[in-house]
Amino acid sequence: MSYQCLDKERKLYFKKDSAKAISAVTKLIFDFDGVLVYTSQSYRQTIRKVVDYYFLEILGLEGEKGKLATIADIQNFKDTGLYNNDWNLSYAIITYYLALLTRKLQQKRVLQDFTKRFNNIQFTEVSSFLQTLGEVGAFLRHYGINATDLVSMKNDSALGIESFLAQSGLENQSSLETIVKRLVPYDFEKPDLLKRLFEESYLGNELFNRFYGIPPIFNFNESFLEKEAFIPTKKTLDALRLRFGKFTVYSEKPRVQGMYLLEKNDYKEYFDEKASIFFEDMIESEVGGEGIGLGKPNPTLFIELVKKFVRKGGGVAYVGDGVADALLVENARMKGLSNLSFLGVLCSSQHPNKLLSWYIKHEADAIMTDVNDIPNLLASLGGKI
């Protein structure tokens, strides 16, 4: 396939045989995180904080903050296309290290004692479960297990993160699955530990109480959500709205958080909230009988959304920021959605050149630094903007 570079400095490219399809686009659908707002200082820092807090504070293991989940580690998970949801990503990293902990216990020949003592623990509510995890941590510390040892195992050829990702994570470690999952309760719909810790870390005390209507437990004063700055300028959105009308969002971000940012930054007028799909919509549809995960890269709900905007002779473009978004569009095309273009942005990746290569592999129709390049792309292809 052949790509033409329109701006080398801005990394603005388009696939030559996609020029006609891009010019025929009549509607824009945006991902939210990494496309509309910068999240490198919010979600990714929250993931690091959650992993550190679980092992260093809740379990009380000795170690250095920031080492268990580095930005590079997080990007490696993202690059698989399987961890678009950051709750899932945090859970995956924690379960990875818990699996390593069981290996350490096995080496010390105390795994059977550990399993006998903790295999039947049950999550009922956060406060009492934190006390139980304190007992788990005391057991681990008694046998000299610390977080520093876990970090040192990250690059191991057999036990390292690369091997974990190659095996699609915890699912292939069936002998350890039960005890590991009991140690970090995670449920999309029910009260749990992982989601609660993540949301409190991400939102901070005030916004957590405001959005969830319950008092925080962990008492994090800092709000990472408040640090999310908008990427597109109003000049860009004004220009695009003249051609495409109001925009739509397809994102795994919770609706209340996305709308909060749009309202706070005076961007709400640009988006059609009722037509947009957020995390809650995916969960509700799944509960309604789909029986499968409807988050990215599953195209089921995305196809329904796109069909709402089809005009005769027109097309839809989805603007995304990662491998999961490219796979989402690829899967939708395989299901017969032929009027769909994918515009991939690079600004949210720690490795933009690597992501560019992934976009080319998955036949992105255009690749750019961020959404502010879309008007230049359209103008270069002869479209009115």
Strand order of the largest sheet: 1-2-7-6-5-3-4
Unreliable spans are 169-175, 287-292
* Residues in helix, %: 40-55%
Largest sheet: 7 strands, mixed
Q: How many strands appear in the DSSP assignment?
A: 7
Q: What structural category do the secondary elements indicate? A: alpha/beta
CATH architecture classification name of the largest domain: 3-Layer(aba) Sandwich
Number of domains: 2
Q: Radius of gyration, rounded?
A: 22 Å
CATH topology of the largest domain: Rossmann fold
In the CATH hierarchy, what is the superfamily of the largest domain? Answer: HAD superfamily/HAD-like
**Nearest-integer average pLDDT:** 91
Task: List the total number of helices.
Answer: 17
Q: Which CATH first-tier class of the largest domain would you pick?
A: Alpha Beta
Output the helix-strand order: EEHEHHHHHHHHHHEHHHEHEHEH
Distance between the termini: 27 Å
Overall shape: elongated
Beta-strand level of the residues, as a percent range? Answer: 5-15%
Short account of what is shown:
The chain is an alpha/beta fold.
Q: What is the secondary structure topology, with strand pairs?
A:
Elements lengths: L2 E5 L4 E4 L3 H5 L1 E6 L12 H16 L12 H8 L7 H22 L3 H8 L7 H17 L4 H6 L8 H6 L7 H10 L10 H19 L21 H11 L3 E2 L5 H10 L14 H12 L9 H9 L6 E6 L2 H12 L5 E6 L6 H10 L4 E3 L5 H7 L5
Parallel strand pairs: 3-4, 3-5, 5-6, 6-7
Antiparallel strand pairs: 1-2, 2-7
Helix pairs in contact: 2-4, 2-10, 4-9
Walk me through this protein's architecture.
With 385 residues, the chain is of the alpha/beta class. The protein folds into 2 domains: 3-39 and 229-380, HAD superfamily/HAD-like (Rossmann fold), CATH 3.40.50; 43-212, no CATH class. The protein contains 17 helices and 7 strands. The protein has a 7-stranded mixed beta sheet. Helix 15 (323-334) links the parallel strand 5 and strand 6. Helix 2 packs across helix 10 and helix 4 packs across helix 9 (174-183). Residues 169-175 and 287-292 have low confidence and may be disordered.
